[in-house]
Amino acid sequence: MTMTVLFTLLVLSAVGGAARDQVCSYQDVVDHLNLTTNTKAFQLTRPVLDHTRPTLVELNIILYAILDVIEKTQTFIPFIWASMIWHNERIFWDPAQFCGITEFSIPNDMLWKPDIFIQEMTEKDNSHPSPYLLIHHDGKVIFEQDMRVVSTCKMDVHKFPFDTQRCNMSLGSGALCYDQLRVIPVVNSSRATEFSKELLQSQGEWEFLHLSVTSYNLSFDGRVWEQLVFTFVIKRRPLLHVINFLLPILFFLCLDLASYFIPVHSGEKLSFKVTVLLAISVLLLILNDILPSMSNKTPLIATYCIVIFALMLLSLLETILVIYLTEGVAMEKLACCADKAEKATVDKSNTTKERRQAGSLCTCVSSGEKQHEMLPVVEEVNNGVLSSESQVLLLVMAELTELQRMLSVHLNCREDGGKAMRLASKINKAFFFFYLLTASLFLLFLYLEWTS
């Protein structure tokens, strides 16, 4: 009797073990659910037993990396991890009947999937798609996908390179309305930001600040769609642009201010200012490659370059004016003095001839000849005979008189040139202080705008 009972127990345990081996496989669960590639019931229609109930789709996005941000085309390219969770009411099994199997993976083309897409996406995702769906015993279906997203982003580069951008990703269904499909976030904004910062691998030029999740309804033609918007807040790291662009322009501005201490007569001031102006022009070409062609507001960095360029241009024009006053006017005065001196020399020659004629007349008077037209000097000494020494003294006096007249002409020319020099010096000082004050106030205004 005892042997018979033992034999029966062994047989039952063997059969039970075989039975457990048979039902404890994923294929048995698939067979229980009747999931096959030819079963269209799981693929064609929305998986609800009552069509009036909407399908709830839980969405989640985590930022892995910021691959690129292109200002010219206003394109945001992140690498993200996205997941969708929804409930399939046609899938259910009891884990106790299948050795505790609660979930398993199946090919993603065997079940219906919601048509969730990113509205801002401009290029097809070329990353390798996930081949499987994860299904749970209660009908929950999970789809996960790593994606390289190329999306549009409306950028405001007014404060470039100290700007902060907000790029949206709007996820929703294109065919199913609000009463058929609802989208809800898995986590709130703070948790999504925390997860993204923990898993972020690369940021590059941009620093990730925040990820916010909001929901809104889109209405069109009497139909309503629900959408979930993930907003990525990123901030540019400005160090590279400050070192390569802003500081060189500031250094050129300081050089242009320092050029006011170069003497005008050295001849190098004008060429120095032209060289600095050309250097600024080269940097403006670099700025044209950086900034987008369209923007709602004029970027502050463009205003920064234009105002500094205009100040340097005014400085160059002021230098030309000062050089004209100090050298051009002086050259004109010197030419005028040369003409007067030449004329005085001619007059001197004529006077010398007259003096000689006067001496001859004096000699004629001493000989007893009558002379009706005599010079004033001769009239003064016509009562006596002039000696040779007296004639020499008269000639010396005439020479001194002409020399005095020529010196007065030169002094007048120098006085006019000195007035031009003093005027040029006053203009130079006044413009220097105006230049310094304008540049300081402008830089202070830009600093306040960039940091606000």
Which key features would you list for this structure?
2 domains, 4-stranded antiparallel sheet, 11 strands, Acetylcholine Binding Protein, Chain: A, 8 helices, 7-stranded mixed sheet, 452 residues, disordered N terminus, alpha+beta
Question: How far apart are the first and last residues' alpha carbons, in Å?
Answer: 96 Å
In total, the number of domains comes to 2
Q: Would you tell me the structural class of the helices and strands?
A: alpha+beta
Query: Which range best describes the helical content: under 10%, 10-25%, 25-40%, 40-55%, 55-70% or over 70%?
Result: 40-55%
The gross shape turns out to be: rod-shaped
Tally of alpha and pi helices: 8
Q: Give a quick account of the main beta sheet: strands, pairing sense, barrel closure.
A: 7 strands, mixed
DSSP, total strands? 11
Low-confidence stretches: 1-23, 352-385
Radius of gyration: 50 Å
SSE pattern: HHEEEEEEEEEHEEHHHHH
- Average per-residue pLDDT, rounded, comes to 79
* % residues in beta strands: 15-25%
Describe this protein's structure.
By secondary structure, the chain is α+β, with helices and mostly antiparallel strands. The protein has 2 domains: 29-237, Neurotransmitter-gated ion-channel ligand-binding domain (Acetylcholine Binding Protein, Chain: A, Distorted Sandwich), CATH 2.70.170; 238-452. 48% of the residues lie in helices and 21% in strands. The protein is built from 8 helices and 11 strands. The longest helix has 67 residues, at 300-366. Residues 1-23 and 352-385 have low confidence and may be disordered.
